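Could you help me review a protein record that somebody else here produced? What it holds is a sequence and that sequence's fold in token form. I have pasted the whole thing underneath without changing anything:
=====
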Amino acid sequence: MEIIGFFIKSITCKREEQIGLPLNINNKTSIKEVEETEVKAINKKCLKINFEFSCEYSSQRKKQGEIKIEGHILFLHKNSSKLLENWKKKKNLPENVNLFVINHVLRRCLVKAIGLADELGLPSPIPFPVARPVKRGETNYIG
């Protein structure tokens, strides 16, 4: 399994003027479509996997903000034709492939979403480690 390309098609983000507290953050990544494509640069067929990443900020069931990233990845696999056939029939990928793809998309999109959230004045979509005073006998500053 190998991801040979990551491409963003659109980024949409917004926030409400006043943000209610407490604020809940829900990250979601989904695969929307899988199709075969040829990459001429390497002269190989691969899978084009369309994805959607969203980070929703809500307070008391009311949406306070959202970051949405849509795009696709190019994915090489030795059994691409079986994966594509399975997608066409069941609209899913085998668990190991699905996790591999979702984790890659999450990593790439969360990096972008952190910067966008900062620009919008929203909390980071993932918690950052926090430095704290060292207690006697400890050597680690980050908790």
